[in-house]
Amino acid sequence: MYKNEFDKHIQNKTVSNSFIFFGESIFLIDMYAKMLTNIDDANILNYYHDEYDFSSAKAHLSQGSLFGDRNILIIKSEKKVPKKELDILLEFCKKNPDNIFVYAYYGSDYKTYNNKKNFAKTNTMNVRFFHPKEYEAQNIISQIAQEKNVNIDKFTISYLLKIHNGDVALASNEINKFKVYDRAITTKDIDNLVYGLASINLDDFIKILLDKKDFRPDLQNILEHGEDEIRIISAITTYLTQLYMFNIYIRVNGAPNALEILGYPAPSFVVEQKASYAIKIKPHAYLKLHELLLSSELQMKSSHVDKSAILFSSLIRLQKLL
């Protein structure tokens, strides 16, 4: 089912006690997992990524609580739980309605979970979460702001989301910054405290560099908006370091794994894009690129130099090395 149908079940209090969440939006997967397992005095067992152990998971759901509270099992992973093991865990929930099981699958291969027939013998609710539409994203941020007692209207929320290119997770993290204000938040406050626009533009700008396109108009625009030359060089260095990590991992393992490379799960389109860029650059070229960028950064940190001129020159040389 999709989010709208699942929301109706929540409103009507007709939800099951076992759930499989998957799809494009990790933020929504995590949000609903937290919502459904936020129960006082529950006995919660969490498994993140490679921590999953079938024996202990099965024992947790099969045992009764000594104190009459509920046993909750949460598995969050990019890797699939074997179908036979998943069926057994879901069956335990069917037998014991007091327990709750949430399987949050972060991977992109979710055809199995998108098929209701595969779970027809259980009470499981399998829900696919797409990236929130603009109005949905605004409502989510508005709700988070209310919970944190932050006074911000929908126009300002829309501005915040625009800065973060519609990323609800990034926008929601910014709300904490505004808790210090005992007044309505304005777009000027966002300009002062939030740096999402620069970072998003830098990501797009770096892709222009890597595609060997004319970067000069975009760089000029970024500089005119107050971005610092050293920060631009630093951001490019960080991005290339990630690409090098992708390159090494792919050459050793054959395919990328964002969790093992970056330390956190990333959307599949981001992983695919970085992997594509990573393998286009030859291993020995990464060394020359890093030497160029680090040397340029050191030059910029010297006194009485034209940082913009150094930046333009360095990026032209960078494209020649690609």
- Write down the Rg: 24 Å
- Helix % is 55-70%
What string, H for helix and E for strand, traces the elements in order? HEHEHEHEEHHHHHHHHHHH
Uncertain runs: 196-200
Number of helices: 15
Report the CATH architecture of the largest domain: 3-Layer(aba) Sandwich
Strand order of the largest sheet: 2-3-4-1-5
Strand composition percent: 5-15%
Count the domains: 3
| CATH class categorisation of the largest domain | Alpha Beta
CATH topology of the largest domain: Rossmann fold
CATH superfamily of the largest domain: P-loop containing nucleotide triphosphate hydrolases
Quantity of strands, as a count = 5
Silhouette: globular
Mean model confidence by pLDDT: 87
SS content category: alpha/beta
The main pleated sheet reads as: 5 strands, parallel
Instruction: Give the CA-CA distance, first to last residue.
Output: 45 Å
